[in-house]
Amino acid sequence: MARKGKQIQEILSLPLGETDVVVSLLYGTVFGEHMLVTALGIENTGRKHVLGLAEETTENEEVCRDLFRGLIERGVAVQRSRLFVIDGGKGLRKAIGTVFGSWALVQRCQIHKLRNVAAHLPKRMQRWVKVAMRKSWGMGTAAAGAKERL
Prior knowledge:
Layout: H1 2-11, E1 21-31, E2 34-43, E3 48-56, H2 61-73, E4 82-86, H3 90-100, E5 104-108, H4 110-119, H5 123-137, H6 142-147
Parallel strand pairs: 1-4, 4-5
Antiparallel strand pairs: 1-2, 2-3
Helix pairs in contact: 2-3, 4-5
């Protein structure tokens, strides 16, 4: 097990200055009483990289800012347009705005959105609402999606 921990530390300390990340996938996963915030990067070639991890009890803004600072120290450019796909955590979104400002384009992960919406509905409505949401997302524009009668 110690070997795996060392390999993970090596991966998480690699310089990132030569890595041209155009999309960052960021999400938190709960493990018992702990939250693991994961940052994955995708280059314009499609190559994927584990960029960083942060372990805490919550996915708050401070934890996420610290994760981003570590990535910047390893060479991730701030002044570069980049798409951030997030799980919807408010702290994560706020930290992206604080650290990357107007360079950041943020998209809520549609899978996470579907799960969150469905979790608040009665079981009998969940499938229908998921289908309706996917159909509206495929309409091309927000206005077309809002007008569609489902």
